[in-house]
């Protein structure tokens, strides 16, 4: 049976991933970001992490999995695996005989079929979702956005810095590696643009000296749905989140907030 939540009042189910790699000269880790095409309805022209909406086929594949994951959670993690391969050419959350050449071939095959299950069968790969760690969940249902996504965030460690990436040029125009603080600095200079959740997550990611520290915090702080709300500080309207969610910055003046 195909499960298709569609654009429900509960929000469009989506998933995104923060992919870590080691920084040069033992410096801070770098994370992968993508610049969305300006033609995209949601977050056009913005710098975001790889990801997208959860497709019906992701729910189908998630429903077939056994193990400890609930089918809905499995579907979101499967969407991360699929979207990352499609958007960037990187293989995460999979195991088998995998190298750079096979990854390129798998991406082409996925773009042709649009179906991750077919990729798994064709290349004799299997899902390895233990590579993904739940990090956050954002659902801005109170905001006036063109589309409201209920997005689950994950983190994953690529390890090596020597990897090949290439934008898909349909949804994304550019891929780049940056430290979290470097991305925040680029936004301050006006080199990139960040929506509210991305900025808050980069501030949180800037706390960590390596992937292990990020994973330790993610494992320690239970994921709770974050729904930004209106607040007031010193007579000005602010967009706020809770104080106990692991984020060092919990609000921003409303007149500076970039939305999707």
How does this structure look, described?
By secondary structure, this protein is of the alpha+beta class. Strands 1, 2, 3, 4, 7, 8, 9 and 10 form an eight-stranded mixed β-sheet that branches. A three-stranded antiparallel β-sheet has the order 11-12-13, with no helix packed on it. It has a two-stranded antiparallel ribbon with strand order 5-6. It is globular. The protein starts with 11 loop residues before the first strand and ends in a 7-residue tail after the last strand. The model is unreliable at 1-8 and 39-43 (pLDDT under 50). The protein has helices spanning 56-64, 71-88, 100-113, 116-123, 180-189, 196-205, 211-220, and strands spanning 12-21, 30-36, 47-48, 51-53, 94-95, 126-127, 133-138, 149-157, 172-178, 225-226, 229-233, 236-240, 251-253.
How many helical elements?
Answer: 7
Return the string of H and E elements.
EEEEHHEHHEEEEHHHEEEE
> Mean pLDDT, rounded to whole units?
87
The secondary-structure class comes to alpha+beta
Beta-strand residue fraction: 15-25%
Summarize the biggest pleated sheet: 8 strands, mixed
> Could you tell me the number of beta strands?
13
Tell me the span between the first and last alpha carbons.
Answer: 33 Å
Query: Which regions have little confidence, pLDDT < 50, spanning 5+ residues?
Result: 1-8, 39-43
Shape descriptor? globular
Radius of gyration computed on alpha carbons: 18 Å
- As a percent range, the share of helical residues equals 25-40%
């Amino acid at each position: 049976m195909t499960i298709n939540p569609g654009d429900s009042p509960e929000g469009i189910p989506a998933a995104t991933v923060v992919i870590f790699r080691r920084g040069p000269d033992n410096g801070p880790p770098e994370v992968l970001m993508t610049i969305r095409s300006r033609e995209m309805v949601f977050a056009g022209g913005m710098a975001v992490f790889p990801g997208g909406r959860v497709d019906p086929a992701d729910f189908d594949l998630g429903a077939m999995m056994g193990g400890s994951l609930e089918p809905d959670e499995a579907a979101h993690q499967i969407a991360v695996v699929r979207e990352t391969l499609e958007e960037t050419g990187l293989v995460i959350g999979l195991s088998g005989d995998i190298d750079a050449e096979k990854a390129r071939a798998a991406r082409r095959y996925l773009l042709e079929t649009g179906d991750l299950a077919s990729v798994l069968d064709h290349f004799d790969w299997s899902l390895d979702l233990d590579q993904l760690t739940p990090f956050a969940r954002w659902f801005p249902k109170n905001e006036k956005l063109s589309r409201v996504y209920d997005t689950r965030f994950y983190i994953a460690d690529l390890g090596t810095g020597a990897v090949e990436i290439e934008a898909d040029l349909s949804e994304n125009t550019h891929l780049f590696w940056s430290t979290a603080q470097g991305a925040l600095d680029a936004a301050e200079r006006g080199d990139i643009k960040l929506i509210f959740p991305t900025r808050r997550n980069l501030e949180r990611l800037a706390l960590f000296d390596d992937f292990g520290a990020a994973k330790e915090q993610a494992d320690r702080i239970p994921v709770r749905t974050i729904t930004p709300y209106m607040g007031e500080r010193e007579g000005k309207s602010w967009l706020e989140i809770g104080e106990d969610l692991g984020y060092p910055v919990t609000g921003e003046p409303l007149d500076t907030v970039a939305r999707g």
